[in-house]
Amino acid sequence: MDLDVFVTAHRAEWDRLDHLLHRGRRLTGAEADELVALYQRTATHLSLIQSTAPDPALTTRLTQLVARARATVTGARRATWRDAARFLTAGFPAAVYRSRRWWIPTAILSTLLAALIGWWIGAHPEVQSAIAAPDELRRMTRPGGEYETYYSSHPAASFAAQVWTNNAQAAAMCLVLGAFLCLPVIWVLFVNVLNLGVGIGLMSSAGRLDIFLGLVLPHGLLELTAVFVAAGTGLRLGWTLIDPGPFSRRTAMAQQGRAALGMAIGLALVLFVSGLIEGFVTPSGLPTWARIAIGVAAEVAFLAYVYILGGRAVRAGQTGDVDAADRSAELPVAA
Question: What is the DSSP string of 159-171?
């Protein structure tokens, strides 16, 4: 496509659209119809230029023009409590359900790797000595040691807030960094698995694995599930960059990126619940079985939420993406 000829042929339409958008008075019916038609044609022009002869200055001008026209045509829309309810009952669980083929294998492989690391550390004293000095290991694993006092070292409310912030940051990193060909996600996930494996190995070598699991499981089931969901979604996002499927890479990444952003919000709420359990239940004086039962109940509730509400939403056509009215129109990317 000859860009100069294309610009000469359509500049008058773009200028007319810009003029209509700057009108201070209300448009007549004919002018409103003209604005809609010009908006649609300009959006198509932008798509053609982006795919065949991308020019930064022209692309920026037309992008801004199309955005202003779209805002005028569709009108401003405010989020309501109904939107939040729809997100929690359909959008978020649908997104988690649709990505289950990524996060379930991630969860299984990560759990097996943590168990393997724990066995390796617990069965090899030389590995334990490489982690820390014997006196330091005893301080960590003895009754009343660092592994036990960690959960009661701060007031419950502030500890829960700190845990929630740290876990939400880790989940957000997995979701955002997935666009970098999956590698940062694998690293963040490995660090979490390694920390869990080290705890399993050191406490099992001290004959206190039951105590460790009694402290980790109440909050860890839900917390790790949220991390696995974030990691699986991040990996899916990274793979979309490699293989966008039937869509253009730009369109596919936009779809997955919007869904990942929504999942970041939903997972923050899940991790908030996990942080409350870790701050108030894990260090409590409840029997071990009661604390673990609370953790199992929270995990079962989340999985039921995903599979029942999410499965129903997916069958109804939900994808976890924003509504069609709230996203850019998908136009042809080639002539």
Answer: HHHHHHHHHHHHH
